[in-house]
Amino acid sequence: MDYESLIRSIPDWPKAGVVFKDITPVVGNPEALRASVSELADHFKDYGVTKVIGAEARGFIFGAPVACKLKAGFVPSRKPGKLPWKTISVTYDLEYGTDTLQIHQDAVGPDDVVLIVDDLMATGGTAYADALLAKKAGAKIAGFGFLMELDSLHGREKLTEEGLGEYEVFSLVHVTDGGEEG
Fold first, then answer.
1. How far is CA 40 from CA 69, 81, 82, 147, 168, in A?
2. Cα–Cα–Cα angle for 92, 172, 176, nearest 5°?
3. Partner of 173 for a Cys bridge, out of 74, 117, 136, 148, CB 3.0 to 4.6 A?
4. Is the distance from CB of 20 to CB of 180 less than 8 angstroms?
5. CA-only gyration radius of the chain, Å
6. What residues does 175 pair with on adjacent strands?
């Protein structure tokens, strides 16, 4: 499937100099959506995945169906105040400031093998935070799966920083022109 031809580049949005990569044509195309979910799941089918973590909101789009294909559970990773029960949290650095993600404290545990799935990896901060949440809960990490990776932002490097470890990173599309997430 030629996902790149479906990803729309929108120059100067949300600000001048940014090329926004819009994935809504991919998820709006039934064949592309089905193929992307299948390719992500197929890549990790032999990793023993028991849970898939997807960060709100676009990580839900790919994470939940990948979990279904892998016969695994889905764990939503959310901003503070969005989950109704006891949570564990990780605060992580953004380009300008910090953000926090949470999962329910019983969502994953030491018997789980976790795959982290999102629509894209830019700087790697969100995926890194999801991996820290999984590790904080005692789970093992199988790897990371993305529809799109913005290579010029070096997110893969972030995923190996600070002792996180070496994990499989699989992306269906690699963007080399410095586009922004979408």
1. 10, 30, 27, 8, 12
2. 75
3. 148
4. yes
5. 16
6. 150
The Cα–Cα gap between 102 and 90 comes to 7
Residues 149-178: tens digit of each pLDDT: 999 989 988 887 766 778 999 999 999 865
Contact predicate 170/36, CB 8 Å? no
User: Closest Cα to residue 116, out of 100, 96, 140, 99?
Assistant: 140
Count CA within 13 A, CB hemisphere, residue 28: 7
The active-site residue, picked from 31, 95, 162, 166, is 95
Share of the chain residues as helix, strand and coil, in percent rounded to the nearest 5: 30, 35, 35
Residue 104 pairs in a beta bridge with 87
Global pTM exceeds 0.85: yes
pLDDT in tens, 113-133: 999 999 999 889 999 999 999
Active-site residue 95, yes or no? yes
Could you give the 3-state DSSP secondary structure of residue 175? Answer: strand
Catalytic-labelled residue, pool 31, 34, 39, 58: 58
